[in-house]
Amino acid sequence: MAGHSHWANIARKKARIDKVRGKLFAKLSRAIIVAAQHGGGDPSANLTLRYAIDKARKNSMPMDNIERAVKKGCGDTTGARYEELLYEGYGPDGVAVLCEILTENRNRTASEVRKIFEVHGGNLGATGCVAWMFDRKAVFAVGASEADEDTLFEVALEAGADNVESVHGGFQVTGPPESFQAITDALEAASIETQSAEIVRVPQNTIELEVKSGRRVIKLLDVLEENDDIQNVTANFSIPDEIMNEVMAG
To answer: H or E segment at 141?
Structure first.
């Protein structure tokens, strides 16, 4: 599982999606609230809000929840004011980890995240310690049944993508962040459905892990993702396909 492979991350997360659906909706709501706070409640004029709403819909979040979150962000209802933060640290075997945060209490969040790192064999680092190892990218995961590689390659690259690769039984499309909407629109026009579509930080290089280390890193990421304030976690590791099932079985 490449650390930058959204297809692999989807497979890992689907195994526990029902368990965390309520928590997922809360995180999606928070992202919508912050987007509306910063850019207003009109998705056609606020690309960040449109992206947050599209992500919520793709995860089957009810429209009532979405509309309520937009109203909170616009100040139509009372609610917390969230702050966007980036926490950086190291996991087992020196794996670099980035946590994208939305919180109304940075002191509480810092304490919780630091403890998670320490309990699971890592440590929370100083600002800038690992962020330089990652680039922001638009990343799309597409199922193998949605399109053949040549068609997907043509559609995606014409829309501004810079790479299409076959990963873990599907395809991953990447491009610069500013191409996100153009690629989204092109895939929709070609009736190619995505498993996920996000703007995330992608590692420039990855550390290949064996079974034991892979289990420890994945456990750390799972616990971090369970934290209410953490929106997204990215790490610069990979696990060879031939041992992936053994890692996940642990």
So the answer is: strand 134-143
Q: How far apart are CA 176 and CA 137, in angstroms?
A: 5
Residue type, 235: A
User: Which pTM value belongs to this model?
Assistant: 0.81
- Both tokens assigned to 215: 């289990």
Q: Provide the angle, in degrees to the nearest 10, between the axes of the packed helices 63-73 and 21-39.
A: 40
The one-digit pLDDT tens for each residue of the chain (250 residues) are 444 455 555 555 555 555 566 788 889 999 999 999 888 999 989 988 988 998 898 888 999 999 999 998 888 666 668 889 999 999 999 999 999 999 999 999 999 999 999 999 999 999 999 999 999 999 999 988 998 889 999 999 999 999 998 877 789 999 999 999 899 999 999 999 998 888 889 999 999 999 999 999 999 998 998 899 999 899 999 888 788 778 777 6
Q: Are 245 and 10 in contact (CB under 8 A)?
A: no
**Beta carbons of 222 and 91 less than 8 angstroms apart:** no
Tokens of 32: 């919508």
Q: What are phi and psi of 20, to 5 degrees?
A: -110, 15
Is beta strand 83-90 parallel, antiparallel or unpaired with respect to 123-124? Answer: antiparallel
Domain segments of the chain: what residues?
A: 6-73
Angle at the Cα of 1 from the Cα atoms of 233 and 110, rounded to 5 degrees:
15
What is the C-alpha to C-alpha distance for residues 169 and 204, in angstroms, rounded to an integer? 22
Under DSSP, the state recorded for 159 is: T
CATH class as words, domain 6-73: mainly alpha
**Termini Cα distance of the chain:** 15
**Helix (H/G/I), strand (E/B), else coil: 165:** strand
